[in-house]
Structures are given as C-alpha cells and as structure tokens.
Amino acid sequence: MGGVTGTLVLAGTPIGDVADAPPRLAAELAAAEVIAAEDTRRLRRLTQALGVHTTGRVVSYFEGNESARTPELVEALAGGARVLLVTDAGMPSVSDPGYRLVAAAVERDIKVTAVPGPSAVLTALAVSGLPVDRFCFEGFLPRKAGERLGRLREVAAERRTLVYFEAPHRLDDTLAAMAEAFGPDRRAAVCRELTKTYEEVKRGPLEDLAAWAAEGVRGEITIVVEGAPEPGPQDLTAEELVRRVRAREEAGERRKEAIAAVAAEAGLPKREVFDAVVAAKNAP
C-alpha cells in the first residue's frame, strides 16, 4: 500500500425501532470525518434520537448520485479520512447504495469494515416460520410484469428459501406472479413494518396471500417464500429437463455432463434426459 489510507465503515441502522441501533453506531457517527447518508434528513433524525453530535462533513449518497459521488469519497479515503456510510435502514449495499463505493475502495486497497446492525432479510427469515438452514436473497423484482414473471420462473425449482423486498403498491401483483410461477399452494410469509408499531406477519399459501394483498397493504415489505420441494421423477416434465440441461450448458458444462447431472438430480436414467434433449432439438 502506498502510504496511510482511511477506513470505510458500513454502518447498519435500525429498520424500525431506533432502540435496535447497534451500540457502536453512535460512536462511529461521532468520530467519522465524512458521513455519506442516503437521506441526510433521516440521518439528522437518527442522530437526534441517539443523542449524537456529529462533527464530520455530511454528504448525500443515494441511487441518483452514487456513481458521481463515489470518486470523491474514495479520494477522501485515500487521503486518510474515516468515512461512514449509512442508508435509510439496514445494512448499506444490500439493495441500497454502497456496492460501488465498497468495490472502488477495495480496488484501491482501502480498508473496509462494518458496524453490524439490523437486517430486514434476516429478521423476516427468522419470523417467517419457513426453513432457515439454506436461503437466498433475491432483492427487488423487476417492475414490468413480463420481466418479473420471467425472473420468478428462473428460480421456480430453487430449493432454498427465497427472500424478496417489494413496494407495497406492487405487492398484490408480485404475489399473484409468484403463485403463477411457484404454484398457488407454495407457502410464504409477508412481513410488513418489521420492528415498527404496526408490525404484521401474514403467513399462508401464495394464492391466499395474493387475495389478501389485493385489498391494499401499506408499509415496508419483505416476502419470504418456501423453496421448491424435492422433485421426484414424476414431477419433472420433458420441457423442464431440457431447461435444466440448457442452463447447465450455458454455465459452461459439456452436454454429456449436464445430462448426467440433471438425471441424478431428478432420479431418472440418463437415457430419459438424453432423449428429451434430442427430441427438443429435433422439434419443428
């Protein structure tokens, strides 16, 4: 490293109840030489609630100016500053601004650390009542209906529990699309306003949740969806077998290896998968 550099601190902030603020957050806010905040007004309310007096320079850092402001913050870090990044709620860079700054800091060999804090992803997962041993976070789905359904179909066979963020005004459409892509009986939980006064967790089959959401839902939303069940030989159509083989080929596997892997996953003879691939190739 060429000389002394500063430190980038990613600070988790409360997702609702300010009492959930991690103990180190107040100390880091007071000590930071630069505070990059997704919303400076929310930052002001947070510091007031925590009784913190900040002395560092405060700059806005949100989706609209993230690309333009990142070089400025990296130069401050390169000059030795301690830069604190906070978003409106939860951990920076998780469906929030921060990834570009972290990547740029790492590229310059600048130290990056974090103040662990509340996470809507883990909180929703924990209270959902669905399996938590394996899960994946999918963030926000596309806004356009066709793209959204396509994205959901890509993970319809995913066996891990799925976690999504969604805006309240799109919740009913998203749950309906999930019911179409995953099946109406797939279990899910809609977690609304976590840790806040009107916290609510609605659990049930996707079809029922979609009907409930059609009446209108407000607040911050996290959706947790049960993973796909273990498929048996009778569960997979020829089209699904071909799709899985193609997905593996696109990921770099040779066709022979892809067919063998899909057959093993499905509990089928390799010849059956091979025949499905050949039939699809020869289809008019």
From TrEMBL:
It catalyses: cytidine(1402) in 16S rRNA + S-adenosyl-L-methionine = 2'-O-methylcytidine(1402) in 16S rRNA + S-adenosyl-L-homocysteine + H(+). It is found in: Cytoplasm. Transmembrane segments: none annotated. The keyword Ribonucleoprotein does not apply. InterPro entries: 4pyrrol_Mease, 4pyrrol_Methylase_sf, 4pyrrole_Mease_sub1, 4pyrrole_Mease_sub2, rRNA_ssu_MeTfrase_I. Residues 7-210 form the Tetrapyrrole methylase domain. This is Ribosomal RNA small subunit methyltransferase I. The gene is rsmI.
